[in-house]
Design brief:
The complex is a heterodimer of chains A (261) and B (249).
Chain A lengths: L1 H9 L1 H15 L8 H21 L6 H20 L10 H4 L7 H19 L2 H8 L3 H33 L3 H14 L14 H9 L1 H15 L5 H25 L8
Helix pairs in contact in A: 2-6, 3-4, 3-6, 4-6, 4-7, 4-8, 4-11, 6-8, 8-11, 8-12, 11-12
Chain B lengths: L4 E11 L9 H8 L12 E12 L3 E6 L5 H8 L7 E7 L2 E4 L12 H11 L4 H15 L14 H12 L6 E5 L7 H17 L2 E5 L3 H7 L2 E6 L2 E6 L1 H13 L1
Helix pairs in contact in B: 3-4, 4-5
The chains are: A mainly alpha (261), B alpha/beta (249).
């Protein structure tokens, strides 16, 4: 086990570079580059704010922050589960040549996801400055732990996706359907009151880890509260569960995976 | 205590049939529910059969045999890339493998950037790679082209660059699979010299090659493989002539 971690550490320059390379490749031919990562969610919420206020004559207010925080966190999970399926497949050429730990390739994707997450969080800033500048302080205090938890979540989900994406080539398609379904029963954009009408839905809302994972960002940034202990417990349990699953998938498949590439 | 060695004991290596029977989630679910007939399954391919082999420090081993005899599989098993079903492989020493040199290039990046990428991939630190950069550029004879994205390179230039980078890092155990044929005739001479040089510096060399004269020149021991088994092991001249006789017969 220690040896495995040491190997990952020894290859740090390599996977770091892979992550950087991918980040660069994403914006290679665009002038604004990384800025797009911030602008895209920012513009999206601006459009929504405009549509809501001009067409539906409804004040959007806090809902902008609600949606934006929802989208940012959902993006992280969605790209771990769906795009993560490509993380080992796209490293085929390296897996075939080097006996590096396979998890460095999913680590690369997780690092990329978490960097994207942090950059996207910047899009919250303009709205917060206008509406609740004071929330930024609490937000920044809680953010480091949240980022660590989200990183572990992303790494374990990506590792699972990476292995099963190699074994079953239709994994991304199936998982994007699953994620779509989850989206409808999770408070990513829908607000709490939309779930309270139905007992089953309400029960699911309360016990859905995604609700609590979202709260880690929402409570401090949107409402100015500390996330509750329950939010942390649900998140940590979910992270641990996926970490154990990823560990088992790695143990079972790490040597066999070369045959599936 | 020997510093470097390779020990294989009764190694069996299979290419699992799942490789050819690969399923999708849809097929997996449907066949479990018996809604779809299960595909006819193929059998595992037995690529290395009960193979035992010891290589000690200072040995230069050439591996020869017909296509499909298991030469490349053997090298990849030694490199730790393929899992084995039975037996044991024990190696001591830092392994450097040279299999498919042109894999792993980023076509959009410049030659200089790719030197860094591959250098890191081969286990170097950024400083180490930067130190070797100029030497690699000179050897690959790329001149100003080094700052062009490598998608603008000809295939010859690409191979030269790949060869120059891969051979810039030494290792104790060197596993080489048919990489001596890089570039045009002029470059090949240079390449061969450089290759000989790093082979001389390696403590153990295992070389897969179809060029019998090089095998006889370079190697101190030759192994002939046939269908996953070692059929001859000994002096290069003897094994090569045995192989050539077999071919005629």
């Amino acid at each position: 086990m220690m040896e495995y971690w040491h190997k990952i550490y020894k290859t740090r320059y390599f996977w770091n570079h892979l992550a950087r390379c991918e980040l660069k490749a994403r914006f290679r031919r665009s002038k604004l580059g990384l800025l797009w990562t911030v602008l895209q969610p920012l513009f999206l919420t601006m459009i929504m704010a405009f549509v809501f206020s001009a067409i539906f004559n409804q004040p959007l207010g806090e809902y902008v922050l609600y949606i934006l925080s929802g989208i940012i966190v959902w993006d992280l999970m969605n790209s771990s589960v769906v795009a993560g399926a490509n993380s080992i497949l796209s490293a085929e050429q390296y897996v075939r040549q080097f006996n590096h730990p396979v998890t460095i390739y999913t680590l690369r994707s997780a690092v990329l996801n978490i960097i994207t997450f942090c950059i996207e969080m910047v899009a919250l800033a303009p709205w917060l400055l206008v509406m609740h500048p004071i929330h930024i302080i609490l937000g920044i205090i809680t953010l480091p732990l949240t980022v660590v938890l989200f990183f572990l979540l992303s790494w374990s989900l990506t590792t699972l996706a990476g292995y099963y994406g190699c074994k079953y080539r239709d994994y991304p398609q199936v998982m994007s359907l699953v994620m779509q379904a989850l989206w409808y029963v999770s408070p990513v954009m829908f607000q709490q009151q939309m779930f309270s009408g139905n007992d089953y839905l309400w029960w699911f809302y309360l016990h859905n880890p995604i609700t609590h994972i979202l709260n880690l960002v929402r409570e401090p940034f949107v409402y100015g509260n500390l996330p509750s202990a329950l939010d942390y417990i649900y998140t940590i349990v979910a992270v641990s569960l996926f970490t154990v699953l990823a560990y088992m998938a790695n143990r079972k498949n790490s040597h066999q995976i070369i045959f599936y590439l | 205590m020997e510093r470097c060695y390779i020990k294989m004991e009764h190694v069996d290596l299979y290419y699992p049939s799942t490789l050819y029977n690969a399923m999708t989630i849809k097929q997996e679910v449907f066949s479990r529910l018996r809604l779809e007939k299960k595909k006819r399954t193929l059998e595992d391919v037995h690529a290395l059969k009960d193979m035992s082999l010891e290589i000690h420090e200072g040995e230069r081993v050439g591996v020869i045999g017909f296509n499909g005899a298991g030469k490349s599989t053997l090298l990849k098993a030694l490199a730790g890339l393929y899992p084995i079903k039975n037996g044991r492989i024990e190696t001591k020493g830092e392994i450097r493998s040279m299999f498919e040199l042109t894999l792993g290039f980023d076509m959009e990046s410049t030659g200089r950037e790719n030197i860094m990428y591959r250098g890191l991939m081969l286990g170097g630190t950024p400083d180490e790679v930067r130190e070797k950069e100029q030497e690699i550029i000179d050897f690959a004879e790329l001149g100003d082209f080094i700052d062009y994205p490598i998608r603008s390179y000809s295939s010859g230039m690409l191979v030269r660059l790949a060869f120059a980078i891969s051979t810039s890092v030494a290792g104790e155990i060197l596993l080489v699979d048919e990489v001596l044929s890089a570039g045009d005739i002029n470059f090949q001479k240079k390449a061969k010299k450089r290759m000989m040089n790093i082979m001389d510096n390696a403590k153990i060399l295992v070389l897969v090659l179809h060029d019998m004269s090089t095998i006889q020149n370079v190697c101190s021991r030759t192994i002939l493989l046939d269908r996953g088994r070692i059929v001859a092991d000994g002096e290069p001249t003897e094994v090569v002539s045995f192989y050539l006789n077999q071919m005629r017969g």
